[in-house]
Specification:
Length: 147
Amino acid sequence: MIDKQYIGHRLPAFSAEVEKGRLKFFAKAIGQTDPVYTDEAAARAAGHPGLPVPPTFLFCLEMESPNPGALRELLDLPLPKILHGEQRFHYHAMVYAGDMLSFEQRIADIYDKKGGLLEFIVRETRVTNQHGTHVADLHGITVVRHG
């Protein structure tokens, strides 16, 4: 069983830049056809100061952590038993190419189901931009299967 003493534990904060080329690549990879995500002129014509971030792109940036395996290492999770259970995004402000984002992750909860055969680690991440504006909250669940 995962030790519930880690509920509330904060992982090291980190920053990541929203790079224009990666935004364009991501938009194409997810099949985004709205030119506002790939063409700066179309983005400006739509009232944006630059290319906006597609809805799920912040998950990619969250993986830019200096140690993407920090949660797994902290909780000594067996890699072959880990599943990505859930991901949600709550946006408070727009994010654009060129923004520098800060990510603050914490373990919000640890619980089990099916008599401990499944354990769930809930991670919440607060994202702010270079101006200190709270732009998003990310909510992710990692599932560990036993047996």
